[in-house]
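Page 42, continued from yesterday. The earlier attempt failed because a stray header line got pasted into the input along with the sequence. Redoing it now with the clean sequence only.
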Amino acid sequence: MGDRHARRGAHPRWRRAGDVAVLLVLLALVLVGAARFVDTTWAPVVVAQTAGPFVVVGLVLLLVGAALLRRWWTLLPVGAALAASLVVAGPTFVAHTSPGAKVNLTVVAQNMRFGGADSDMLMDAVRLRSADVLVVTELTPEAADRLAASGATDWFRYQVGEPVEDSFTGTRVYSRYPLTTVTEGDDPSVEQTPSHQPEVLVDVGGTAVRLKAVHVVAPITRSTPEWRAGLTALADWSRRQSEDAPLVLAGDFNSGFGHPGFRQAASGLLDAEREAGLGWVRTWPYLGQRVPAYVQIDHVLTRGLVLVAAGHTVVHGTDHALVWASFSLR
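This time it went through. C-alpha cells are written below.
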C-alpha cells in the first residue's frame, strides 16, 4: 500500500519536470528563431541567425515528443510556435518558375576557396547548364590558368576582373555575351569589402542586363562590422539602379535570409533558388568541415527577369556549392 502511494506521489513531480523540460526547449528554440529580427554585428547572434531551419526541425521534434509524453497542454504553445515558423519557411517550398519559357541567360556563381576549386568539375557544370555567365570569386592567378586549361576561355569569349595572388579578393566575370565594364569594383571604400565586385552590362541579344559580382567579407568575430557594411553597400547600390532594366547580383554574400542585412540587400529582388521552391537550400560548408552543409550564403538575386530554373552543385576543392539560375527575358 505504502509503495503504491509513493509511486503515485512521484507522478506529479515527473509530470511537472516534463512540462518544464518542454517549455525550456521551446523557449530556446523561440529565442534562436527570434534572432533573425535582431540587426546586430555581435557574432554569436549572427551565427544563430543561420540556424532558422533547425528551429523548424526542433519544433517538429518537440511537438512529437510532447505528444508521446502526453503533455497535452504544452502542445498549444509548441504548435503555435511551429505554425509561426512555417509561415516563414513554407513559401520557400513553393516554386514560382516558368519551366516552359525560352532560356536567354544562365548565370553560374562559384567561390573558388582561395583558388582551390576543381576547374574541370566547374567547367563540366558550366557546360551541363550551357552557362552564359560565370562569376568566380576567390580567384587566384593559378586558378585562372587552370580554368583556362579546362576550357573557360574557349567557352567564354569575354571577361572582366582580375585574379589576385595569395588572396581571397580576386573576382572575374566570364561571359559568352559581350560585356561592358561599368566598374571594376575594386575600391574597398565604395564596396565595403576588400574583395573585387565588378559591375558589368551583359548584352543579351540587344538587351542590357546589369550584373554585379558579389563577395561580402565573412562575418567572423572581428569582421562582423565590415560584413554588415558590405551588405548595406549592396542594398544602397541596388536601390540606385533603374527598375526598368534587368538586374542580377551573383556570388558569395556570406549571409542568408536569417540576417536582416541580407534581407535589406535582397529587398525588391528575387532569390533564384528560393523562387524555384527548393526549400532548405544549403550551399556551405562542404569541404573539410566538422558540420555538414546547412546554410545558403551563395545566391543569384534578380529583378526584371523570368526565372526558368535554378539549383546548386557541389564542386570538389571548395567549401561553397556552385549556384546557377536560368532566365528568360521579359
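Notes: Residues 5-10 have pLDDT under 50 and may be disordered.
Reminder to self: strip header lines before submitting.
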